[in-house]
Amino acid sequence: MFNKILIANRGEIALRVIRTCKEMGIKTVAVYSTADRDSLHVRFADEAVCIGPPSSKDSYLKISSIIAAAEITNADAIHPGYGFLSENATFSKVCKENGIKFIGASPEMIDSMGDKSSAKQTMRDAGVPTIPGSDGLIESLEHAKELAVGIVYPVILKATAGGGGKGMRVVNSEDEMESAWEMVKREAGAAFGNDGIYMEKFVVEPRHIEIQIAGDQYGKACHLSERDCSIQRRHQKLVEETPSPYMTPELRERMGEAAIKAALAVGYEGVGTVEFLVDKDRNFYFMEMNTRIQVEHTITEEVIDYDLVKEQIKLAAGEPISGRNYYPTMHAIQCRINAEDPYKNFMPSPGKITDYHCPGGHGVRIDAHAYAGYVIPPFYDSMISKLITVAQTREEAIAKMQRALDEYIIEGIKTTIPFHQKLMKDEKFRSGDFTTKFLEDWTM
Fold this sequence. Notes:
eight-stranded antiparallel beta sheet, 3 domains, alpha+beta, globular, 14 helices
């Protein structure tokens, strides 16, 4: 087992990893930018190293600074959390070259799954259902128009190196193709340094359902059931739950088997997620594989009593998995509490938190790094915390979430708490009858 782990991240996920490390008797190193010197992950780690100014590219994305911090503190492993360098093949490779264990996927695995075009072909070869689309990248605008005729509109153009909802446009007819093509090319080049594009059939009325997986160094893989992430805005998840209200036992088995096939196809090691789109007839299609811990891992932990960060660390240290598949025995919901104003089109609201009170009670969990007096910086993701409730049934989990949201006090800035309060009362949401398009016609 590792002696000391450096957490190459910030905020609530850094604090989350520190907590598990302490329980395992592993020393921790926090890294931080000058904007995060007062963050709780800095306070609760055994050691802390400043790695640069507020800009991510000069701090949390600067590989040389993070490796230097690991070396001067004698850390023998690095946990990347999610976002930043968590799916960066170069970072994984540099860690290996410097004799530091990267608690995540190998460079080869990240490369194979990070390029969405090649990932799709890998899944096809493994017998995992995929969305009809282009074989590889599209060569030109004319090529795109030809392909769309065969696939049949509507189609979606996607950046091969994309993620987080960036670099994708739905095209409903040939008249829209040229402007969509130019937009995706431009956005992909600017955001990812790679303007390669592929095309897929656009699935109408889809659910976004993902399967949690784990794999060890000995060729074994298992799944830990599903999460429904269909409540999203501009491809950004806002609410997640498990089990999915759309799932049937038969569909759960088939999707679980497909996720394990996906993991075995790439020799997956660690904790990750296979994401699927599920259509109105419950046909499911591979979308992507995330080779890291997910923001929403919390709800899986709650319904199967399983510390996924601990499992990540154990797998990275060479311990085997049992090979057993896990299924939810309760129902959990997570609301992402962001520093955004839902009444002003979710405009970011950085600033100082003047008053802060967390909800509590049975079945309520908060993963947060905020406190009264803490300043939400404008340089990073706007997430303040994750509020999770767990109960015997979905109805009880929603009722518990309503109560917890009413107790949650964050003053001094605008937050998404009012949005979640309204959503929990929405009859369509409460019935479980929603798709990824749910919020398109929904207003505060």
